[in-house]
Amino acid sequence: MNWTAEKLAAEVSSVCSLPTIYFRLNELVNDIHVSNKDVGALISEDAGLSVRLLRMVNSAFFGFPSGIDTITRAVTVIGTRQLSDLVLMTSVVDMFDGIPNEIANMELFWRHSIATGVSARVLANYHREINVERFFVAGLLHDIGRLVIFQKLPEETTEILSLLDEKEAPLHVAEKQVLGFDHADVGRAMLEQWGLPEHLVVAVGAHHQPSVLDEIDVDSAIVHVADVIANAMGMGWATEVHVPGLDEAAWQQIGLPVSILSPAVEQIKRQYDDAVELIFSDKAVASSAA
Amino acid sequence: MQPDIEKIESRIAYLEELKQWVFNAFEVGQNLNEVFTHVKADKSDVEIFDEIIEQLEQLYGFSKMAFLVVDEEDNDFSLISCQPRNKQNQIQAEVDAQIKCGNFAWALSQTKACVVHSVSMPTTTVLHVLSTKSRVRGMFLGVTEKKVDDVNDSMMSFLTMLLLGIANTLESRELYRYVHEQNANLEKLVASRTKELEEARIEAETASTVKSTFLANMSHEIRTPLTSVIGYAEWLESGSIDNSERQEATGAILRTGRHLLKIINEILDISKIESQKIDLEIMTVPLHNMLDELGHLLSVQAQSKGLKFEVKHNFPLPRCIMTDPTRLKQIMLNLCSNAIKFTDEGEVSVDVAYEKQSGKIKFSVKDSGIGIPDESIDSIFESFTQADSSTTRLYGGTGLGLNISKRLAEMLGGTIQVSSVPGEGSCFAVTVDPGTLNENELAEDYEAFSIKDVTRAETNDPSKLASLTGKVLVADDNSDNQRLVGFYLSKRGIKVVMADNGQQAVEHALVDDFNLVLMDMQMPVVDGLEATELLCSSGYSAPIVALTANASKEDMDKCLAAGCVDFLTKPFDKRRLNQVLEQYLPLAGEEETEQESGTYDEEFEALTQKFLLSLPDKKFNIEIALASQDWAELKSLMHQLKGSSGGYGFSDLGSAAAKVEALIKNQNIDDVDVMIKDFDAEYQKVVGNQKRA
Q: Does an H or E element contain B137, and which?
């Protein structure tokens, strides 16, 4: 079977889909008539989601000075738009529960994705982005294509992995060699099919080689740099032998001074631990609540 | 149907409300757009904030609002604008409370509105950071009656947009101000640099003009007499001239020729001074002798004009001073002949005094001549200027004399000062540095001052000198000098050890115990300077006195720098030698006084004979050097004679040798022949008479 990234994505998205609550939330948020109370009410319908949300909002991940005890309040603090991104994040993590551990260690994979998400969010904060949560989502989803490949093409995966060991090549190079496309392409296709916002689609698709784009947009640049940071810090594993190379142009595009890296790394470390705990333990909570 | 209609109606009402708000928002946006373009400084920051607050009030209905800005230096947030004005304290209290509970800091890290409970009131506070991508500039605080949960997200998004615009405007204004300031600074800098350059240029131009003027004047001053000489010579050649005219012509040629020579010599002097090629020869100069000499020369000149000339002494005066006699004489002659030249009747006097305070000797040349007008006083020291150009014709002269005298005086450590009353007379006072003087060297009266050969008289009688005890190391490569010094030393009861060069001197010094080392500065193998440095750097403690025939200030400085405590010039001044000995050697006790066999005079005579006998050999070497044009060797031979002859009493021979040495040193090889003739003459005198010259 001749696979293309699009075909693969189509296969998966027909099976896996985002929870309805995500779409309902999006609809609600775009309606100005709606207040934070209304949004809070919607979320409260999903107990598991509510719990996770409150825990997240009260963690170092957000660093809010005082305690937040109602969903509505949480909505106010996070902001409605960012909220939908967070819901997306939790949904995605739930989706990929069933991959056997021999092919890929799921925990390590999610750790890396979380690390990339956290790094992207921290970088976005320094960059004074208005909506930093979407960077978290972009980081979290950037390697989703890998999961798809592992799940759907186990034979080819083995080939790719052995090529990796032999040649010590970057994953996406090995993938291109064996399949003709890489996990970034698959990820892009998937997000597109889910109807997610374009900036996310582009950022995920270009996270290894942002320079491929005519104009490197900030989202892609940040996700790329975040991926490099996450690899360099050894948080989780992205199936890479070496830390991927940094695209200079991407860093330039972000336009932040190198001096921010030191404090940024400190923040990333702190938030990463919290985020991992939130997501993994929440999964347990969610499945038990469901 | 009913519920639908209700729903529809409420939705319509809401949409109306929303539309209105959106229109308002656009209007606010437009109004603020004007604010955003106020980049230049015609409005202050406060005024801008006030305008913004007004607009925001209209749109959002905040009951209280405030803008805080960050202080560059202490990173503190201070309130710059608020509404209502009279509620400032309350507003500040809310700000402080929000800072305390951490919401303020949280808001700083977000790039959106942070809606929180007010602390001091049951209202809602909206905090929004004011920042650009590069840095945080401040914070906006707004208080609304709405409940926290009811605050609309999208309205807040609009606020974000506005505040971002404001932050950017502030940044632009700041940058604009900075650029403006930099420009102003730059302009100031350029202006001052231009001024500096202009001043430097003018200075350079002036210097260049002065040089050109000098050259022009110089060529004029040379050409004029030369033309005259040629003119007269042509007249003589033409033959159409009778005897009286012939006298006149030759007289004129002689006169003009001499004048021309004088000018050229003086110009050479000036150029030497300018290129600092003048080497002063500092030596002990008996003041009385010099003044006597001057007196004789100048009285003749003065008398020929019917003027009186007098030297007036103001005691106490030192008997001898350390200076360059040739140059000092040159100055004195210049000043005195000027005085005589410009005085038609009355007298010219030289007033000599020792100024205790400044430690200088002052020679004041006073005349009762035509005087100098005030405005000309400075210019007379410039080259080729006399006080009045008409005076050149009347009184003659080159116009260079005072210039040279002034420079020479400066080289001798002093100055020339002028005071004058036109019609009554002038006073030119030249001061010179006499070197370090001993208190008891000052003569209190004329008798003490004018005793000739007072030094010889004193020290020639050995019974007058106290015996000393101790050991002295003498390093000198010249055997004549060795014998001479050895003689003087042993006469005073001192033990002497000789060294032929610096290396031997160092070896002896380190092995033996000496009270004093007399080190000749010019020796082969290791010279005196090096030996002194070696000894001093290895912590040698005995005093080292330099013996040197080179009396220039430079050489003296070198000796002192190498570690010598004092120096003696050759030919020896016996008095100075004894002074040094007395300074560093203890007096002998009664028992140690030894009587040398033979009298002093007899022994000295014997030494002198030895010296005389060595002369033919030296002369022979001189001839060889001359014939083979070995100037280095000739210079060395002359140098040695310069140092030793005087010690044995043949000072004229020594001077002649000195002159030859000086010529070779200045690479004046052409004049050596002439000077050698002088030397030969002196030599013949010495050898022929076999007596002290």
A: strand B136-144
